């Protein structure tokens, strides 16, 4: 997500940091580079123009904050402006009104509507709601079938639409069935076309006139950049959308759609799809996305994810150890167990700020879950003394550990190497002031 833009902005700000004091000229020059970076990220031209004008004005007219260096101040202005561009704050779904709440998903074919419908149903179910999935794409029997399969996967009932029904009748009858079946959230998956088309719009408008829609979410493939924004604008004019879901964000290195759609349509991005699995849907947080764009990683997301499974005291203890360079193999084992609960290692690494710049990590082989299990076995075959001081693990101990864990000396070596690499990495993070006693770090 946003990698290209991040790289570009980072090098721009690095230059700024080299200046003790910033002149208007320095700022203008930096803004020229930011402008190019945004245009290369496929951000809407008008949006870029306004963005740069606003940042320049604020950066130049800014009062000097003694706690920040001039370079940091510019980064802060850009950060705040990016947050605003992305929509200021996360916009939750409107679920409190008349029940059942009806959510309609609309968008072009292949944008990810059906997948998003199932992902959304799963999230709502986990929050204690009773969702009901409704396939209203009567032109493609496969689309109805696809929603039935996904519904089963997420354990959410699916309305039995047929291709003989009219979409508006499906919507009306499904809402009635939701009332009698005590479902509180109806999610309607509509038909898509390859291009915006009047017949499709008329069909969607008819549904919106007939059933009370709490949300009309426009679903778009983020990878289509400005096209997604143009189509969103058209849907918003014809249909009055309430929010946007950008799918396939995990593969979108540029971010043009995400950065333009709120400004162009006035409607917030409510969710982003970050993978094909039914779990891969995230509430969109503008502040976190802005931090991510500026290369700060998604610290808050990481903390939230960690907090869900990691005991807070344990996390603090660990942060202290990192501070004191006292992170042992025993802690490493502890971490592996936490990581197994949290998701894949790569997902987690990606969220740690600054980590993509650590060369030793980039060059390191990507560990997979199987490797984690092996690593765990190897550390478990070490004595407590060895776990607390890896330096004593000589050749003969390595042979013993390999035998004990049913692995090879080469594999033991690999674990020790990745552990020492991790130690180095932690020192690096500390040097950058990123790890600080387990506290949340703000800009
Ligand atoms: P629809 O025609 O709008 O209903 O689109 P589908 O839900 O059938 O999705 C089209 C394709 O995009 C499918 O192969 C999905 O698995 C894929 N897809 C949907 N959302 C995401 C996402 O967030 N990330 C990735 N990588 N693929 C996605």
UniProtKB/TrEMBL annotation:
This protein's major location comes to: cytoplasm
- EC code(s) of this entry: 3.6.5.4
Q: Which residues form the SRP54-type proteins GTP-binding domain?
A: 268-281
Top enzyme class of this protein?
A: hydrolase
Which Gene Ontology terms describe the biological processes this protein takes part in?
A: SRP-dependent cotranslational protein targeting to membrane
- State the UniProt keywords alphabetically: Cytoplasm, GTP-binding, Hydrolase, Nucleotide-binding, Ribonucleoprotein, RNA-binding, Signal recognition particle
Which residues hold GTP? 107-114, 189-193
InterPro entries (alphabetical): AAA+_ATPase, P-loop_NTPase, Signal_recog_part_SRP54_M_sf, Signal_recog_particl_SRP54_hlx, Signal_recog_particle_SRP54_M, SRP, SRP54, SRP54_GTPase_dom
Q: What is known of its domains?
A: Composed of three domains: the N-terminal N domain, which is responsible for interactions with the ribosome, the central G domain, which binds GTP, and the C-terminal M domain, which binds the RNA and the signal sequence of the RNC.
Subunit and interaction comment: Part of the signal recognition particle protein translocation system, which is composed of SRP and FtsY.
Family to which the UniProt record says this protein belongs: Belongs to the GTP-binding SRP family. SRP54 subfamily.
Q: What does this protein do?
A: Involved in targeting and insertion of nascent membrane proteins into the cytoplasmic membrane. Binds to the hydrophobic signal sequence of the ribosome-nascent chain (RNC) as it emerges from the ribosomes. The SRP-RNC complex is then targeted to the cytoplasmic membrane where it interacts with the SRP receptor FtsY.
Annotated protein name in UniProt: Signal recognition particle protein
- The protein's organism comes out as Desulfobulbus propionicus (strain ATCC 33891 / DSM 2032 / VKM B-1956 / 1pr3)
